[in-house]
Amino acid sequence: MISMHFGYSRDSAEDIKIAIEKRKLSIRSKVKSVIPCDALLLNPIAPINATFDVVGSSLMLDCAEGSTYKQRLKNASALVKSGGFFVQFSNGPGCCNWKCGSVFFKVVDPQTPEDNAIALDEAGFNILQTANFELPPFFCQDGIFDCKDMFLTVCRKRY
Question: Which of 11, 80, 125, 142 has its Cα between 20 and 30 A from that of 46?
Answer without folding.
Answer: 125
